[in-house]
Amino acid sequence: MYQALKQRVLDANLQLPKYGLVTFTWGNVSEIDRKLGVIAIKPSGVEYVDMGVDDIVVVDLEGRRVEGNLNPSSDTDTHIELYKAFPNIGGVVHTHSRSATIWAQASLDVPALGTTHADYFYGDVPCTRNLTPVEIEVDYEKNTGVVIIEEFHKRDIDPQAVPSVIVAGHAPFSWGKNAKDAVHNAVVLEEVSAMALATRTLNSGIKIQSELSDKHYNRKHGANAYYGQR
Amino acid sequence: MYQALKQRVLDANLQLPKYGLVTFTWGNVSEIDRKLGVIAIKPSGVEYVDMGVDDIVVVDLEGRRVEGNLNPSSDTDTHIELYKAFPNIGGVVHTHSRSATIWAQASLDVPALGTTHADYFYGDVPCTRNLTPVEIEVDYEKNTGVVIIEEFHKRDIDPQAVPSVIVAGHAPFSWGKNAKDAVHNAVVLEEVSAMALATRTLNSGIKIQSELSDKHYNRKHGANAYYGQR
Amino acid sequence: MYQALKQRVLDANLQLPKYGLVTFTWGNVSEIDRKLGVIAIKPSGVEYVDMGVDDIVVVDLEGRRVEGNLNPSSDTDTHIELYKAFPNIGGVVHTHSRSATIWAQASLDVPALGTTHADYFYGDVPCTRNLTPVEIEVDYEKNTGVVIIEEFHKRDIDPQAVPSVIVAGHAPFSWGKNAKDAVHNAVVLEEVSAMALATRTLNSGIKIQSELSDKHYNRKHGANAYYGQR
Amino acid sequence: MYQALKQRVLDANLQLPKYGLVTFTWGNVSEIDRKLGVIAIKPSGVEYVDMGVDDIVVVDLEGRRVEGNLNPSSDTDTHIELYKAFPNIGGVVHTHSRSATIWAQASLDVPALGTTHADYFYGDVPCTRNLTPVEIEVDYEKNTGVVIIEEFHKRDIDPQAVPSVIVAGHAPFSWGKNAKDAVHNAVVLEEVSAMALATRTLNSGIKIQSELSDKHYNRKHGANAYYGQR
């Protein structure tokens, strides 16, 4: 019943090592089927090379296992919060990819510094506030989702226009219209994070021109997009 | 009729992932046939692994499609401007290669700091001014070419002696006597950009000796060149 | 008699080039069989590609060769000290992996800056003091172990909670419940060392929240761990 | 007559791309046969993938071609100077490997900061002075050798104890007992150059303890060496 969904989630998870976004098992991708009300996600702590389609776990929106024998990713509750709060997203990915994680450890937004960034993210990729000790102690993974959503609401950011976030002290999450698209955005986030690190070393105050940011974002998104084969 | 041209352009585009200059589809190479008045160029938004010779698009110097079913690269108008302004070049390449893009994001010239640079570029690789909001709004890709050409004229730089440019806030363009040669120069630009980043961290004021720059450039270029098998 | 032990040690040594932790022969892994009172370890100065299971050397806890024709790693005496002082460890690895060695050369602890670190190391990875000239002159490799153990005792660090150390001016050692686990920790140390370098450049005073460090360490370790398939 | 020599030189040249020390044709390795008074060296500007044993050029100590149809490396005269001045070396290699070239561009010695360096280099790897305009204009490649030799004499450095040099504004040269050993040293130089860059960023004043440097150098070199299988 969930075979096609599980296959897409497996394929998307296997893109993580291919694009150099993960060490060992440090990443997980999920996709939601909103009609069926289920999420397929990577099992916790399983190596990518050993993973088959039957290892993918299906859970409902309360996190209860619907199909599969393994435990779902320990980050499942964060994925669920994002799917609930952001109704237009279909896939979520979490990694500890090196450069994006560096921005997380520094507790800083990934600043929009060029058109590579602007092609995918409309403005800075926001960094969350720290979780409180209580938020860490109880329902930590759910609260990681809560502070992400809070940051987007507080800054009035459209999660489709900025499909990634930096969780302070932790690492990035990205999302997209499905699992594959979420991984695509995670790859982009890693690249622009690496570029931003060195750019700030060369020229600490620089920002992208707002008109250039608008132009590049709109070349690829919305009714007047003209990039690619439309 | 354009088969050989298209094959060379395909081959040159496939060098981009081989040399690590591109993520996803973020790069495009073209070559001009000046006798026939046409340019062959990568289609927009197509993955390198999926690309065949029939996907390469042939356009005339007004950007009208002459052969092929796909849309040409969204950067085609920049390529056309360069071919029109620089009559001795035969190939153009645009990438978002990491280190050169870092210099673009910092809005700085890539400084000539050693003989690796001097072997290919006679002096700093210039960074353009920002485009104005109007230049961005209307004919953006064409105007990207216009500011490149303006920078070379303003500084009186010979585009054959410095076959690359840094577009502020954006990324590099390189060119050469044909598509393959343009890609070769893009690889060099990326390498010298990476070296220059760290060199300036170690020794912020350093420049190459002008005599050493002259010597290395002339070892490889002009009537008295003695590098290679001549 | 030692065939299975030697095979595990060979396999773990071959993980070093696979994970990019070594140049040439600059690394060695050992595993102890505490019942038999022997340690299997890489031979000194032998290339990984040439190494077979019969090249692995078995020594007793005084460093005397019990099986094998080759000289054991020149670092064998350091391994022995660690096994004697840390009774719960089963494998030890030494490399000159780039980022961890940079912290060693800088004579600095690898600071705990994020959850990637906290998942494996409970607090900073300590850097030893310098050896004295006398400690260097006589029994250098043994004394390298002595200063490691001294640092853990002085700071009251549990070697199972922080399974790596930075030896000042030299390079890292890591350990684990067996040879494979030790190499796993060495890979993690290298990754968090690289992240910490750039994090400190972006934000020089940052530290991980202590509650977040506790949470992530306890997600993976101890009675209440819930990461993975338990 | 020179077949074995040429084969060794070919093999050593092919190690350069394998170890990531070269872009395109930016490197060359030679080996001397002191009895026969000849040097075998890479041809100028030939791609590594296209190179066969018959492309290797044999020259005498005046640089005259003795065997082969291609032009020898444009850096041949530098190699010859080094062989003449350093009677105990048998192989020379020149690359523009990224990190060592960064030190060259910064006109700085590669400082001895850890045992990775001390295992191979007894003290800092020296950076030459700039060549004068006249030295650049006439016999440039020979004079590159002259300033290298001058630096070793001026600082009283034994070229066997420090088998590499940084040529200011240019790039490194390394040497060894034969072509293969020279390439080995070039790989080490690149690695310690990369480590030193980041070490100095973390801790700008740090140096290796002199006793530790002595110890590690003598573990691997001289009558009392005990590293490896002796």
Report on this structure:
Chains A, B, C, D: Its cofactor is Zn(2+). Chains A, B, C, D: Pfam families: Aldolase_II. Chains A, B, C, D: Keywords: Metal-binding, Zinc. Chains A, B, C, D: InterPro entries: Aldolase_class_II_sugar_metab, Aldolase_II/adducin_N, Aldolase_II/adducin_N_sf. 4 copies of one chain form a homotetramer. Chain A is of the alpha+beta class. The first copy, chain A, has one domain: Class II aldolase/adducin N-terminal domain (L-fuculose-1-phosphate Aldolase). In chain A, 40% of the residues lie in helices and 13% in strands. Chain A contains 8 helices and 7 strands; from the N terminus they run αββββαβααααββαα. Chain A has helices spanning 3-18, 76-85, 98-105, 115-118, 133-137, 140-154, 179-202, 210-220; strands at 27-33, 38-41, 57-60, 65-67, 91-95, 164-166, 172-176. Chain A has a 7-stranded antiparallel beta sheet with strand order 4-3-2-1-5-7-6, sandwiched between helices. In chain A, β6 and β7 form a beta hairpin. Chain A is globular. Chains A and B meet through α7 and α8 of A and α3, α5 and α7 of B.
Topology at a glance:
The structure is a homotetramer of 230-residue chains.
Chain A: H1 3-18, E1 27-33, E2 38-41, E3 57-60, E4 65-67, H2 76-85, E5 91-95, H3 98-105, H4 115-118, H5 133-137, H6 140-154, E6 164-166, E7 172-176, H7 179-202, H8 210-220
Antiparallel strand pairs in A: 1-2, 1-5, 2-3, 3-4, 5-7, 6-7
